[in-house]
Amino acid sequence: MNLAIAANGQPQLIEVDPHINVVFGSDRAFLPYTAVALQSLITAYTDKRPLRVFLLLADPLGEEDRARFAELQSIRRFELREILVDASRFRNIRTTAGISVATYYRLYMHLLLPEQAKRAIWLDGDIIVRKCISGLFDADIGNALFGGVEDSHSALYRRRFGVHESAANVNCGVLLVNLELLREVPFLPEIDAFLKSHGHKIMLGDQQILNTLFHEQIAYVPLHWNVHGRLLDRNWVLKNRHLNSLSMRAIEAALKRPSIVHYCGNIKPWNSGARQLATQEWRSAAAISPYRENFEGIPATGGRRRKLQHIIGRFVWKLGDRHRQWKKLRRFARTTQLPAVAYDHELLNRSLRSHMYIALTERRRQIGSRPFSADQLLSSLPEMSAIALVGNNEDVTGGFHENLKPMFRTPHIGTHIQPHAADACLFLLQNLRHLRHWDCMRASHMGTPLIFGETSFFGAYAGYYDRSASAHERRCFGYIFDDLGYYFDANQPSRLETILNDPGFELSAAMFWRARALIDRVRTERVTKYNKYVRNGGAAIEPGSVIVVEQRPQDASIIFGAAGGHSFQNMLCAAVAENPDRLVYIKRHPDNIHNRTGTLKHHRARVLPDDFDVTAALDECRSVYTVTSQVGFEALLRGKDVVTFGLPFYAGWGLTDDRMKIARRMQKRSIEELFHVACINLSAYVNPMTGQLMQIEDAFDYIRILRSRGDAL
Fold it and tell me: What is the 3-state secondary structure (H, E, C) of 220-278?
């Protein structure tokens, strides 16, 4: 309550609304998209004032839909009110797939919302909110009825609407409404009069009505509150600046940090991949929304023409993005007192890696000899932690890495979480040219833990690229974690290397025999990385033969294992030359099979069938030639001779014939010690059925169940 002076001079109490009011209008068909918009709104909401959301509908929500919207309360508590609307006065007004009768519901807000609600924000359902909505709610629009962002086609629409060139013209998908003032003017009577004379001319629904009738009572708000339509296409912006009065500076600033992205028009995140801004963010939100099943199988593109437009737009974007990458890198260098990098495109990758290793060296100095294990990591992070992801959101929202969420006991894993506000930063890929990578590195200097994660050596069933596998089969259930860097990156000491290189490290008798028992299970149960492709029985290779292991040339273990594309052909030639009296087989990589990638060839080498069981081949062969593949590790577990042409994590410990040397690794280690550190100490496993952590022995049991029951599980 506020105290005010009435017209008669007497004090009176005025009820003040403490809420932030947000209004959505939807029909039954658009409820799933409205739910995604509402989910993004409450996820980004940080204001202390209570949030009140009004859902305007022609028909009441069904019990199932009401339950779905109630799921969003798990993200943040808010008040949701359903209000039924009779929009029959607009039944004869033109509607389209993008403009339904529900868009006219906003014209009734001043009558439907509580009297104490003085202002409200209208949001269309085809949006994603990326910043707390309170900033828009508190925007100063003076005595205007509405506040909005200038439309991308404002000049064109002004001409079509027959208003003067200086008239305000806003996109009404995001609208700040002065309810208090709206109740004092003859709002609906003016609209009725307009419909009677101009109803058949309306092409843009109520947006045309509002901009035509009330343009003198509309105020502009900053563009970042509604980055909409064709403004999302940078190529279009460069060619059509004459269609609005927005400055390029304002557009670029809004595109860089949009608070609301509005997918108005025919091209939506769910029917085309042509939009460049936050499309992936919308799809990630949709994948975890209450209507997530409605968004399965969203097409990646919208036809050849749109795909071409998308490619051209991405090219234009990358020209500016490269400059932004360098600015980010320079800022990172200044922050951490690292040497600056010259602006030279050819040196970009080399310079980025150099800075990466300097940063990781500083991180090792900060951490010192602090102990680390996968179990310790998972127990140190509280439940419901916010984890900033460096990777693909699809992978953790129904994809290959979805089991990370029960493993970390939190649903808050994604690229929408900012590194400096996160409890930890999780790297699932090492893309040094991605700005988010450097944001996480900078956050680590402020104390945010870094976690480098990768599928563990025996923690997957089907391959990442195997589209024939079910979603259940394609979800990884085991991970190896490191806090110093990726275990496969030979350019710097990882936690795995640090432990094995410690002369004081040794296994107790219990640890040794546990490792020995598990190694025996690997051999007898034929456990491998991709366990779906293990076959019982079938053809076998000639005993005592040689296996040459193919990998994906673009695989991170190749790039960071001191190898390259030439390493494979050199390896194949060496295997043939060094084994003149033995059969040489080439084992293709499963991901290459499903990607239809070309394989190695030699007239003396045979290519194993794509469905051939690698574990059966390892049982029969004498030696294995590999660059950095895990198959070499599995061969060591079987006591085979292993020749490496790169620097995998198992090279340099006296177990392999290494054609490349790594002077840092000075200790001689047994296979039991290597297995214990890599597969037990630094690895963790989760049961996808229960969401609970499990031991590696249980993971082997789970693999056996998958093999016997498959999707029936």
Answer: ECCHHHCEEHHHHCHHHHHHCHHHCCCCHHHHHHHHHCCCEEECCCCCCCCCCCCCCCC
CB 267 within 8 A of CB 277: no
Q: Does pTM surpass 0.70? A: no
**CB neighbourhood size of 23 (10 A):** 25
What is the model's pLDDT at position 537?
57
Question: What pLDDT score was predicted for residue 455?
Answer: 94
The full set of domain ranges for the chain reads: 16-295, 502-681
Report d(CA 495, CA 487) in Å as an integer. Answer: 7
Do 16-295 and 502-681 have matching folds?
A: no
pLDDT at 603: 76
**What per-residue confidence (pLDDT) applies to 337?**
46
Contacts 24+ apart (CB under 8 A), 310-317: 310/273, 310/274, 310/276, 312/235, 313/233, 313/234, 313/235, 313/236, 313/274, 313/276, 314/276, 316/234, 316/235, 316/238, 317/234, 317/276
> Counting beta carbons within 10 angstroms of the beta carbon of residue 244, is it exposed (0 to 12), middle (13 to 18) or buried (19 or more)?
buried
Q: Does domain 502-681 have CATH number 1.10.3210?
A: no
CATH of span 16-295: 3.90.550.10
Q: Tell me which residue of 405, 423, 561, 573 sits closest to 490, measured CA to CA.
A: 561
- Return the structure tokens found at 653: 């410990």
Residues of the chain with pLDDT under 50: 1-7, 13, 96-98, 274, 300-306, 309-310, 317, 336-347, 711-713
Q: With b meaning 16 or more CB within 10 Å and e meaning fewer, what string describes 36-48? A: bbbbbbbbbbeee
